[in-house]
Amino acid sequence: MGTETDLSDDDAGANLPDVADYLSLPDDATDEEAAAIVAAIAAHVADGERAAAAVAAAAARSEPTWEGEKWTFAGRVTATSGRRLRRVPDGAPREKWTAAARADRF
Q1: Do the beta carbons of residue 92 and residue 102 sit within 8 Å?
Q2: How far apart are CA 20 and CA 48, in angstroms?
Q3: Rounded CA gap, 100 and 93, in Å?
């Protein structure tokens, strides 16, 4: 069914610790109990890998926002032009020079 992966010759696996160093099965565990323990550990590791992949995918597709920078931008426009901005819209260009050129519309 599954395939075994030998990491001994793989450079990526060279720095991985041997799982057997950290885990032990009870001496009196039956084959079924040992299989259940291994399955639980494999499911836990797979869940962690899926969660890490989901976080990486979300970070890759998220776009920069004005979150936390609207007040800074509005303050700079006020300081440099003397014109006070009422608000910086969410749809404003994220690139500061482009946004500054459109500040009269805010």
Answers
A1: yes
A2: 19
A3: 9
pTM (whole model) above 0.85: no
Q: Give 58 or 6, the one with higher predicted confidence.
A: 58
What is the chain's length?
106
Q: How confident is the model at residue 32 (pLDDT cuts 50, 70, 90)?
A: very high
Rounded CA Rg of the chain: 27
Structure tokens at 9: 């010759």
Rounded Cα–Cα distance for residues 19 and 28 (Å): 20
Token readout for 81 is 């032009």
What contacts 24+ positions apart, CB below 8 Å, involve 91-98?
92/66, 94/63, 94/64, 94/65, 94/66
pLDDT of residue 50: 93
